[in-house]
Design goal:
CATH superfamily: Response regulator
Structural class: alpha/beta
Strand content: 5-15%
Keywords: Arsenical resistance
Helix content: 25-40%
Largest sheet: 4 strands, parallel
Protein name: Protein-tyrosine phosphatase, low molecular weight
CATH topology: Rossmann fold
Number of strands: 4
Distance between the termini: 30 Å
Organism: Halogeometricum pallidum JCM 14848
CATH class: Alpha Beta
Shape: globular
CATH architecture: 3-Layer(aba) Sandwich
Number of helices: 5
Length: 156
Protein backbone atom coordinates (compact mmCIF):
# COMPACT_ATOMS: atom_id res chain seq x y z
CA UNK A 1 0.00 0.00 0.00
CA UNK A 2 1.44 3.38 -0.99
CA UNK A 3 1.53 6.49 1.21
CA UNK A 4 -1.13 8.04 -1.01
CA UNK A 5 -3.41 5.05 -0.41
CA UNK A 6 -2.96 5.40 3.35
CA UNK A 7 -3.54 9.17 3.28
CA UNK A 8 -6.88 9.03 1.47
CA UNK A 9 -9.53 7.33 3.58
CA UNK A 10 -11.68 4.91 1.64
CA UNK A 11 -15.22 6.20 1.29
CA UNK A 12 -18.14 3.85 1.54
CA UNK A 13 -20.26 4.43 -1.58
CA UNK A 14 -23.22 4.85 0.76
CA UNK A 15 -21.46 7.94 2.14
CA UNK A 16 -20.86 9.43 -1.31
CA UNK A 17 -22.72 12.59 -2.20
CA UNK A 18 -25.26 11.60 -4.84
CA UNK A 19 -26.06 14.14 -7.56
CA UNK A 20 -28.67 13.54 -10.28
CA UNK A 21 -29.47 15.39 -13.48
CA UNK A 22 -32.96 14.75 -14.84
CA UNK A 23 -35.12 15.75 -17.77
CA UNK A 24 -37.96 14.11 -19.62
CA UNK A 25 -36.02 12.38 -22.40
CA UNK A 26 -32.50 12.28 -20.92
CA UNK A 27 -31.32 13.13 -24.42
CA UNK A 28 -30.15 16.73 -24.14
CA UNK A 29 -29.74 18.97 -21.11
CA UNK A 30 -29.33 16.23 -18.52
CA UNK A 31 -26.75 14.47 -20.70
CA UNK A 32 -24.77 17.71 -21.05
CA UNK A 33 -24.98 18.33 -17.30
CA UNK A 34 -23.83 14.78 -16.57
CA UNK A 35 -20.80 15.11 -18.86
CA UNK A 36 -19.78 18.42 -17.25
CA UNK A 37 -20.38 16.96 -13.77
CA UNK A 38 -18.19 13.94 -14.49
CA UNK A 39 -15.41 16.23 -15.67
CA UNK A 40 -15.82 18.55 -12.68
CA UNK A 41 -15.83 15.63 -10.23
CA UNK A 42 -12.61 14.29 -11.77
CA UNK A 43 -10.92 17.72 -11.88
CA UNK A 44 -11.58 18.15 -8.17
CA UNK A 45 -10.40 14.65 -7.28
CA UNK A 46 -13.83 13.64 -5.97
CA UNK A 47 -14.18 10.39 -7.89
CA UNK A 48 -14.67 8.37 -4.69
CA UNK A 49 -16.80 11.01 -2.98
CA UNK A 50 -19.45 11.91 -5.58
CA UNK A 51 -21.78 9.58 -7.47
CA UNK A 52 -23.48 11.06 -10.54
CA UNK A 53 -26.78 9.78 -11.86
CA UNK A 54 -28.82 10.82 -14.86
CA UNK A 55 -32.09 9.79 -16.38
CA UNK A 56 -35.41 10.77 -17.79
CA UNK A 57 -39.03 10.14 -16.98
CA UNK A 58 -39.69 9.12 -20.61
CA UNK A 59 -36.26 8.46 -22.16
CA UNK A 60 -35.60 8.93 -25.86
CA UNK A 61 -33.88 6.35 -28.04
CA UNK A 62 -30.68 8.38 -28.42
CA UNK A 63 -28.99 11.62 -27.41
CA UNK A 64 -30.05 14.51 -29.67
CA UNK A 65 -27.69 15.01 -32.62
CA UNK A 66 -27.23 18.74 -31.94
CA UNK A 67 -26.20 17.92 -28.36
CA UNK A 68 -23.64 15.38 -29.56
CA UNK A 69 -22.19 17.99 -31.95
CA UNK A 70 -21.92 20.91 -29.52
CA UNK A 71 -20.54 18.73 -26.73
CA UNK A 72 -17.94 17.34 -29.13
CA UNK A 73 -16.69 20.93 -29.51
CA UNK A 74 -15.91 20.85 -25.78
CA UNK A 75 -14.12 17.50 -25.96
CA UNK A 76 -17.00 15.23 -24.91
CA UNK A 77 -18.11 12.23 -26.95
CA UNK A 78 -21.77 11.64 -26.15
CA UNK A 79 -22.40 9.55 -29.25
CA UNK A 80 -22.26 6.30 -27.28
CA UNK A 81 -24.52 7.40 -24.41
CA UNK A 82 -27.99 5.96 -24.14
CA UNK A 83 -30.84 7.78 -22.41
CA UNK A 84 -32.19 5.83 -19.46
CA UNK A 85 -35.23 5.90 -17.23
CA UNK A 86 -34.82 7.08 -13.67
CA UNK A 87 -37.30 6.39 -10.90
CA UNK A 88 -38.61 8.57 -8.12
CA UNK A 89 -37.22 6.05 -5.65
CA UNK A 90 -33.74 6.32 -7.18
CA UNK A 91 -33.88 10.13 -7.09
CA UNK A 92 -34.96 10.18 -3.46
CA UNK A 93 -31.66 8.47 -2.52
CA UNK A 94 -29.79 11.53 -3.83
CA UNK A 95 -28.48 14.58 -2.02
CA UNK A 96 -28.95 16.94 -4.97
CA UNK A 97 -31.31 16.67 -7.95
CA UNK A 98 -31.19 19.18 -10.78
CA UNK A 99 -34.15 19.13 -13.13
CA UNK A 100 -33.81 20.90 -16.43
CA UNK A 101 -37.09 22.81 -16.43
CA UNK A 102 -39.36 20.14 -17.78
CA UNK A 103 -40.04 17.86 -14.86
CA UNK A 104 -43.31 17.29 -13.08
CA UNK A 105 -41.62 15.01 -10.55
CA UNK A 106 -42.90 15.14 -7.02
CA UNK A 107 -40.08 14.12 -4.72
CA UNK A 108 -40.06 13.71 -0.96
CA UNK A 109 -37.58 16.32 0.27
CA UNK A 110 -38.14 15.63 3.98
CA UNK A 111 -34.90 13.63 4.15
CA UNK A 112 -32.80 16.60 3.07
CA UNK A 113 -33.00 16.13 -0.70
CA UNK A 114 -32.09 19.41 -2.41
CA UNK A 115 -34.09 19.74 -5.65
CA UNK A 116 -33.34 22.54 -8.10
CA UNK A 117 -35.21 23.36 -11.27
CA UNK A 118 -32.75 24.97 -13.65
CA UNK A 119 -35.52 26.00 -16.10
CA UNK A 120 -33.37 25.60 -19.22
CA UNK A 121 -34.57 25.64 -22.81
CA UNK A 122 -34.52 22.33 -24.67
CA UNK A 123 -31.67 22.17 -27.22
CA UNK A 124 -33.64 19.75 -29.41
CA UNK A 125 -34.88 21.75 -32.35
CA UNK A 126 -32.47 24.59 -31.61
CA UNK A 127 -29.74 25.45 -34.03
CA UNK A 128 -26.16 24.93 -32.95
CA UNK A 129 -25.84 28.51 -31.65
CA UNK A 130 -28.86 28.04 -29.38
CA UNK A 131 -27.59 24.66 -28.22
CA UNK A 132 -24.17 26.19 -27.47
CA UNK A 133 -25.76 28.88 -25.29
CA UNK A 134 -27.67 26.21 -23.35
CA UNK A 135 -24.50 24.11 -23.07
CA UNK A 136 -22.52 27.05 -21.68
CA UNK A 137 -25.22 27.87 -19.11
CA UNK A 138 -25.30 24.24 -18.01
CA UNK A 139 -21.54 24.22 -17.56
CA UNK A 140 -21.70 27.32 -15.34
CA UNK A 141 -24.47 25.81 -13.22
CA UNK A 142 -22.63 22.50 -12.83
CA UNK A 143 -19.44 24.25 -11.69
CA UNK A 144 -21.44 26.29 -9.14
CA UNK A 145 -23.20 23.15 -7.91
CA UNK A 146 -19.86 21.40 -7.47
CA UNK A 147 -18.62 24.36 -5.41
CA UNK A 148 -21.50 23.57 -3.03
CA UNK A 149 -20.96 19.82 -3.16
CA UNK A 150 -17.26 20.19 -2.42
CA UNK A 151 -18.01 22.54 0.48
CA UNK A 152 -20.46 19.98 1.89
CA UNK A 153 -17.86 17.23 1.60
CA UNK A 154 -15.23 19.43 3.25
CA UNK A 155 -17.69 20.43 5.97
CA UNK A 156 -17.43 24.15 5.26
Amino acid sequence: MSDADRAAPEVDPVDAVRVAFVCVQNAGRSQMATAFAERERDRRGLEDRVKILTGGTHPADHVHDVVVRVMDEEGFDLSDRTPREISTEELETCDFVATMGCSTLELDTSGGLDVRDWALDDPDGEGEDGARAIRDEIEERVVALFDEVEAEIDGT
